[in-house]
Amino acid sequence: MTDNADARSAAEIVDEEWRLLLGGSHDLIDGETVRAASAQPRLRRLFPLVSHGVMYFSGCTGMPAAHVGGQVCPRGTDGRFRVRGPRGVGTLGRAETREEAFALVVANLPEECGPAVLGGAGRV
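^ thats the sequence. predicted structure below, dont judge the formating
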């Protein structure tokens, strides 16, 4: 397989995962959160992951995931969204809106963070 074929295949996998999440046919995360994340072009190139209402991103399409940028947690008791670092380590900040929370994730993406690649974390 050529690099172009790999990139195209990874892009198709990423697009399909975004379509599933945006379709809302699951109870893993609310649709408003997914829509706010999908509005960020740099995040749309990454593989989206969700667990217990938390949304995070991987630089690869397989497992283990290559966590990048950070994680957006559901609105807390203070009414704000907590943004944790990759793998949930540390706190990057708190945001009033989902849009601000995902902008904080984008701001913490490594500069060289490109589209997700095929495979697990060993590929990134």
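Residues 3-123 form one domain.
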